[in-house]
Design brief:
Glucose Permease (Domain IIA), eight-stranded antiparallel sheet
Length: about 170
């Protein structure tokens, strides 16, 4: 009788090629961290919020100094908007869904963008005007309801963008 070793889930879940970071998949939708360093965030998706009436937080707040670059996390189309709550916002629509960045100080490149292009700059516009500057970052898979993007952010924000994937493979 022989013992069958357990399946190596780490190896099984590893992307097959290094091109994985430019070809987003449902398990890894972002190729690039959406906010440059220095930045700080925790998983505050779903937290209770009262500004503008009680609601559950639909994004993750990535705190960074005013003017920090906000980048498209994947190839897509960037379009600006503005509202009382979100202030100046930029939405990037990609193949697997869209992201929504709010409270920006100004916009960057708009229209067709590649992953990593600067689409805006961190600020505190909208209902963040009395608070710290941050990017309110929402992820809408399949362009549906907002989802918790914390682990997807961790995959690309734990290290400088160009090192994120090799580093993750190293520790996987
Ligand atoms: Zn927020």
């Amino acid at each position: 009788m022989t013992l069958n070793p357990p399946a190596d889930s780490h190896t099984a879940s590893r992307p097959a090629t290094s091109s994985a970071h430019t070809s987003p998949t449902p398990g890894r939708p972002f190729a690039v961290c959406p906010v440059d360093q220095p930045r700080r965030y925790v998983d505050d998706f779903g937290d209770a919020r009262w500004v503008g009436g009680f609601h559950r937080h639909q994004g993750i707040d990535i705190f960074a100094p005013e003017g920090t670059r906000v980048r498209a996390p994947f190839d897509g189309t960037a379009s600006p908007s503005s509202s009382w709550a979100g202030g100046l916002t930029v939405r990037v629509e990609g193949r697997l869904g869209f992201v929504y960045n709010a409270h920006l100080s100004r916009t960057g490149k708009l229209g067709r963008v590649r992953a990593g292009d600067v689409v805006g700059y961190v600020g505190n516009s909208g209902d963040a005007r009395w608070g710290s500057t941050h990017d309110h970052f929402e992820w809408h898979p399949d362009a549906g309801a907002a989802g918790d993007s914390f682990r997807y952010l961790n995959a690309v924000c734990k290290a400088p963008a160009w090192r994120a994937i090799p580093h993750r493979w190293l520790i996987a």
